[in-house]
Design goal:
By secondary structure, the protein is an alpha/beta fold. It is built from 6 helices and 9 strands, in the order H-E-E-H-H-E-H-E-H-E-E-H-E-E-E.
């Protein structure tokens, strides 16, 4: 019962700090998120940073679940444009955040989608977002990075933006039994390991909370798969 109450509290928190809207670049999907859509990028950028910090303070951690990030947008677009990538297969969406990529995989016909995150608010957001899009997604909390994924496809929207995470995520992905795809935006700092992944597609993704209104984002596949 305690766990259920925590889930309800997290869902209420997500509802209170987000609204449901179509995702730029992936309009087939509607998510609960805090992103404003303003043609004046600088004004929207400043507004979003203020909202980010406000939610961060209340949640006690960065609200990755409250925004569709560039890596996730590109990967969700790739999955919807190439449904054969996941159709009829089991899928793990690592560091799911809002659940954007997990929802895309479910819409593309995956047999089972597991969305993983360490943030309970992210897991609440996934439940709400899956329901909003009429798909089934299994949420899985906790840190998986010391293990090995057994799903047929592993999707990682944006996990190479900081060194500590990248150093753990790369070996985890390398231990996957099946295909691995990750979305990596061009940023000043990227910790994608050399010689491990091969590019398969490039997207120009509209975004806020970045240093430009659009981000060149590459979809990489784990080499040798």
């Amino acid at each position: 019962m305690r766990h259920d109450l925590h889930d309800l509290h997290a869902e209420a928190f997500v509802r209170a700090h987000t609204r449901t809207a179509a995702v730029p670049y992936v309009p087939e999907i509607r998510l609960r998120h805090a992103e404003a859509h303003d043609e004046a990028h600088d004004e929207a950028h400043d507004e979003e940073h203020g909202e980010l910090y406000a939610i961060w303070e209340r949640a006690g951690g960065l609200p990755f679940w409250a925004y569709p990030w560039a890596g996730g947008k590109a990967l969700a677009r790739h999955v919807l444009d190439h449904p054969e990538t996941v159709r009829g297969r089991t899928v793990l969406d690592l560091a799911t955040g809002s659940g954007l990529v997990a929802v895309a995989a479910a819409l593309a016909g995956a047999a089972l989608v597991v969305a993983n995150d360490v943030d309970r608010y992210a897991l609440a957001a996934v439940r709400l977002n899956a329901a909003a899009n009429g798909v089934a997604v299994r949420v899985l909390g906790g840190d998986l990075l010391d293990g090995a994924p057994h799903q047929e496809v592993v999707l990682a929207g944006d996990v190479f933006y900081e060194r500590p995470l990248a150093l753990r995520a790369a070996p985890f992905l390398a231990r996957a039994a099946g295909e691995v795809l990750t979305g990596v935006p061009d940023r000043a700092c990227s910790y994608l390991p050399d010689g491990v992944f091969e590019p398969v597609a490039v997207h120009e993704v509209p975004t806020l909370l970045e240093d430009a209104p659009r981000k060149r984002t590459t979809i990489y596949r784990l080499s040798g798969r």
